[in-house]
Amino acid sequence: MPEIELSAGTIDYVDTGGDGPVLVLAHGLCFDESVWTEVTRALRADFRVLVPVLPIGGHRRPVRPDADLSAHGVAALLAEFMDRLDLRDVTLVQNDAGTAQLLVGVRDERLARLVLTSCEALDNYPPGVQGRLLHRASRVPGGLFLLVQSFRFPALARMRTSLGGMARRPLPKDLIARWYRPLLTNRHIRRDLGRFLRSTRKDCYLRAAGNLPSFTRPALVAWGAEDRMMPPATGRRLAGLLPNSRYVEIADARTLVPLDNPAALTDEIRRFVAEHPLPGEDGG
Q1: Contact 71, 102 (CB under 8 A)
Q2: Residues 222, 248 contacting (CB under 8 angstroms)
Q3: Which whole number is the average pLDDT over 242-265?
Q4: Which of 92-96, 108-112, 178-182 bottoms out in mean pLDDT, i.e. has the lowest?
Q5: Are 208 and 104 in contact (CB under 8 A)?
Q6: Given strand 90-96, what is the order of strands in its sheet?
Q7: Could you read off the pLDDT of 81-107 as tens digits, one per residue?
Q8: How far apart are CA 16 and CA 48, in angstroms?
Q9: SS3 of 62-85
Q10: Cα separations (Å) of 34 from 40, 174, 218, 225?
Q11: In 5-21, which positions are buried (b, 16+ CB within 10 angstroms) versus exposed (e)?
Q12: Which residues contact 167 (CB under 8 A, 6 or more apart)?
């Protein structure tokens, strides 16, 4: 994978290259680029697809000890990533974490379109049992280390109160091992995740929602129809705040929409981009 040096440190990223419209796919907490593998594979023929590995628990490279790893700090790194690669007219697609929302009205000058799939939003933060457990464990000395030990055992990781509640079907063992190996083997990765979790402010996304009505560019809110951690009602409320948005529910999907139903999500992204072409994208 290519790598890039940002102010917080070095991160890995996927870049399919090409001259097509630019898609940046952003993952959630304790995941990496593999969440988007099927979507990337389906779109790479017609789009330039980039997937940065953000330093929120599934990353393989620790960042600097003084890096700002608050939700706003991670959003700033996402903006810096787009700046450093001079990405323009980006369609930013977010899953699970609410990071993309924090750019609206702050660092959204490179965005042409916004796609939000099941993610943290409004008053659902930290989200669900899973989010609250991680947040509480991070505030107890040694708590985060003890909690992540459960991910050594796929049966425990697949429980409804863990990863099992985020996906419609049992998650493959190799993916669970891939996502949690950095946390299990590298104390500096645990340090990074702990700093992110301890910086959590419950009103983070409620405050960010105040900027959403100013985003008049096209937006798609594509929510997992069976999501329990990020309820569809939250997605509908979110879409209602974006003045140029369309709301759709993705069948047979919970929070991890790109894993549960990548074909349906890919179809929606293609349709969305085609409905809102930029100059030069429609042959005009």
Answers
A1: yes
A2: yes
A3: 98
A4: 178-182
A5: yes
A6: 3-6, 9-15, 48-52, 22-26, 90-96, 111-119, 219-224, 245-250
A7: 999 999 999 999 999 999 999 999 999
A8: 6
A9: CCCCCCCCCHHHHHHHHHHHHHHC
A10: 9, 11, 27, 22
A11: ebebbebbbbebeeebb
A12: 254, 255, 256, 259, 260
| Opening angle at CA 8, ends 90 and 36, nearest 5 | 45
| Residue keyed to tokens 């509908």 | 236
As a whole-number percent, the residues of the chain with pLDDT over 70 amount to: 93
Token pair, residue 25, equals 């796919």
